[in-house]
Amino acid sequence: MSSRQNKSDAMDDQSEQSNSESSLHWDLEQSLENTSCLDTVIVSSIASTFVDTLQNSSNSNEFVTTEFGEQLKQALRKLMRAYKFACDCNRSRWDFAVEITELREIGVSSEELRWLIGKRLVDHAEESSRTGDTKRTFKAAGGFSLADRTCFTLTDIGIELIRDQFFNEPIDPEEFELTLRYPKWDKVRHELRLGGKVIKKFKWRAANQEAILCAFEEEGWPPRIDDPLPPISEKDPKRRLSDAIKCLNRKQINPLIRFCGDGTGEGVIWELIE
């Protein structure tokens, strides 16, 4: 790549970052994980640890392990129940996220909740919505931090393992296939994924690129969307949209998706790269 192209890329990225907003609050429209296309070795390793922890032990810690397993089972069943309610209502699983107070009432400790996070069985975020709000909103929770308003949802890994261990319900093949055919934009992690693979990750918020990805996510990834960028005085909207599309195609970790204009300068199209 020429030095001129490198400078152009840097300028485009800087332009995107200059338009970033300072708010740390994000709506969680979809689940935080989309990893149904799992590596067999990873699943086997997690499943083995999961089963070993829940089953009774013959060592000196048998009492602790038994108590821990029963409480954990109750918490996971509650999270699975919330997930099923969300599916039945055709809503995001975050609309039915379980509050930390409910899990602690069951007897699950902070250490056990952090274990679930570390094993990627659950995702957590701090609820920011208030009484009277029309929708639940959350802000990202970093690492293993927990707060009074922390809420939890099952990840796809957690759903698969719980179905196998507690309910003996395999993942629906159609549901699995959809994860391979449609991307997933994670607003909290600033990641675009397909089938569990990260396509693009933003270290800083890029307002224009993220606006396009949010629009696709909210509409269920149709083949085309109208230009979602809000107008800015003295800026050509078609040029602005074109620049954002070019940035979306650059620096992809796994180049699995291609974005392009619709030919009118007023819409965006996406397609899988074969």
Produce the secondary structure layout.
Layout: H1 3-18, E1 25-26, H2 40-54, H3 62-88, E2 98-99, H4 100-106, H5 110-118, E3 122-127, E4 138-140, E5 150-154, H6 156-167, H7 173-181, E6 184-186, E7 191-194, E8 197-201, H8 207-218, E9 224-226, H9 237-249, E10 257-261, E11 267-272
Antiparallel strand pairs: 1-4, 2-5, 3-4, 3-5, 6-7, 7-8, 9-11, 10-11
Model description:
The chain is α+β, with helices and mostly antiparallel strands and 274 residues long. The chain has 2 domains: 3-20 and 189-272; 25-171, no CATH class. 44% of the residues lie in helices and 16% in strands. The protein is built from 9 helices and 11 strands. The chain has helices spanning 3-18, 40-54, 62-88, 100-106, 110-118, 156-167, 173-181, 207-218, 237-249; strands at residues 25-26, 98-99, 122-127, 138-140, 150-154, 184-186, 191-194, 197-201, 224-226, 257-261, 267-272. The strands form 3 sheets. The chain has a 5-stranded antiparallel sheet with strand order 1-4-3-5-2. The radius of gyration is 21 Å and the shape is elongated. The two termini are 24 Å apart. The relative contact order is 0.14. Residues 1-11 and 13-68 have low confidence and may be disordered.
